[in-house]
Amino acid sequence: MSGASVSGGSRIARRTGATLALLALLPGCYIDLDGLTGGGVGGGGGQGAGGGGLAGPDAGDPGRCAPADCDGPCVVAAAEEAGGPAAIASVGPYVVWTSRASARLRRLDPATGAVEDLVSPMPSPGLLAASGELVVWVAANGLWRCAVDDCAAGATSLLAFGAGEAEAVRGLATDGRHVYWTRDEPSGTAGELLRCPVAEGCGAAPELLAPSQSHPRGVAVAPGDAGSVVWVQRGTGADFGRVLRLDKGAPSGAVAAQIAVLLDYPDRIALGDAEVLWTWAHPDGASGGVSRCDLAESCAAAELAPQAEPSRPLREPAALAIDGADAYWADRGGGTVMRCPTAGCPGYPEVLAEGLTRPAAVAVQGACVYAIDEAGGGRVVRVAR
After folding, report:
1. 90-123 per-position pLDDT tens digit
2. What pTM, to 2 d.p., does this model score?
3. I need a surface site. Which of 10, 61, 296, 349 has the fewest CB within 10 A?
4. For residue 175, what is the domain's CATH number?
5. Contact 98, 128 (CB under 8 A)
6. Which domain holds residue 250?
7. In a domain, 257, yes or no
């Protein structure tokens, strides 16, 4: 095992139905994190307007997401503080994201607004997954894990990567016991679903759960020791465009059940208690959506949000997350963060935030939804659920 050193330690009113308001992203709400991170962060209070001295959600009201004077999606980290965020997750009481530009993992304490390094340095960190207090991620040199509340001893290597191997990883998930990932390759015939125990690591040989996969992408896994792992094959037509499932206890090489087939370009996937959801988007960005079905073989797939406002179309849904009875996603083409019940939207999907620049990822933590916004080189914003 090898280690990486550790450095240093919106409220937007909930809008429903016909009362949805047209709000643009307001750049004036920033959290000044200078002095809150033990001196380990540069870049001041973000971009545009200076820091506002806000320390995070109102400590007197834990049900509130953001300070009362924040009129739109609040920027919690920008510029050097955000560090070119690539992926984000809710981990224990924290929000963690990978910072590709600054080669580190960053940790936000929502109770105080403090942002600090969890792991630094870490070459080109990308995909991120979490379960309980555990965070796992992909970096250019391998697959890693760390406890979110204490990484002082350094991150633990689960599997070393050679040159170019990290770029082939297209999906990542963990149930706390194992980490699962998909690996793609150019021919579209030899992709894989792999697994590795979190406690022991992989050594030189991760477990191959599903070989000969056609462009596998997103993967999700049920918490705990039992349940399913689900993933998608991206593409269109009979040989691609599938949602597949394996029981976590299935032996290596077991035949996967086909949950849904003949899909158009599925990408990200999320697993609820009794349903599976996935995003899809045409490669030209002209159309997209979120689909759902019950977690059963040969299910009847349906659109999660069959209707959308003409001014807020679904073009490139991404970064799907389920929290309780609700699903959240970022729509890159529309610049929005949206929500629907996992059972399906009775009307238009609820727009939690808009005016964003190609939002790329979402995470739900407490009363807030956090998203990665690509404006200004990348920043992390939050909005009330």
Report:
1. 999 999 999 999 999 999 999 999 999 999 999 9
2. 0.83
3. 61
4. 2.120.10.30
5. yes
6. 23-384
7. yes
